[in-house]
Amino acid sequence: MIDGIGIDVVDIKRFHESLARTPGLREKLFTESECKVNEASLAARFAAKEALYKALSPEHGLHWHDAEVINQLNGKPAFLFQGEIADLVDGASVHLSISHDSGIASAMVVVER
């Protein structure tokens, strides 16, 4: 049964400009591993985290580092959860799709229980 759906889109250029003008923002939003990808992929990972938040609709805010976007061996994106988010999604299946093209990054998350 679907418990939540979230979607988000990010303008890659505007996202890059935000990172450039705000010292420490990259480190606040992303894990060390996530910071190693290119700007378009980083924007897509931000969209994924925003979509996850929308799908979960938590009562309180979530910590950015508690949901890391990784690539599985087959290249498919997935979340690696820890902390408060891990407790929130315990027993759930979380599906993630991300994309970026023509200056826009997007992500969709479906949570099933």
From TrEMBL:
Record's keyword annotation contains NAD: no
InterPro entries registered for this protein in UniProt: 4-PPantetheinyl_Trfase_dom (IPR008278), 4-PPantetheinyl_Trfase_dom_sf (IPR037143), ACPS (IPR002582), Ppantetheine-prot_Trfase_dom (IPR004568)
Cited Pfam families: ACPS
Keywords: Fatty acid biosynthesis, Fatty acid metabolism, Lipid biosynthesis, Lipid metabolism, Magnesium, Metal-binding, Transferase
4'-phosphopantetheinyl transferase domain residues: 4-87
GO BP annotation list: fatty acid biosynthetic process
Entry keyword Iron: no
A GO term for molecular function: holo-[acyl-carrier-protein] synthase activity
HAMAP family: AcpS
Name the record gives this protein: Unannotated protein
